[in-house]
Amino acid sequence: MPTAHIALVKKLIRSKKFATYLIQNCYPIAIDGTQKLVRDGQWHPEEWLDRSGGENETSWEQQYIYVLEAN
What we know:
Blueprint: H1 2-14, E1 31-32, E2 36-40, E3 49-53, E4 60-66, E5 69-70
Antiparallel strand pairs: 1-5, 2-4, 3-4
């Protein structure tokens, strides 16, 4: 996962997506990889992680994926 974060940030910098945010030719970047994107039910069976809980009528199923947010 850290390798993917670094690759994403490098790609965004190379494509000049952050150019308007330069402060004295430096990029102020904060990375938060602790939050997750969650969806109820089955959406993308291979790419997302699964979790379920409950019993019988109260059972539930969710898919989730870790996301990267750069500010």
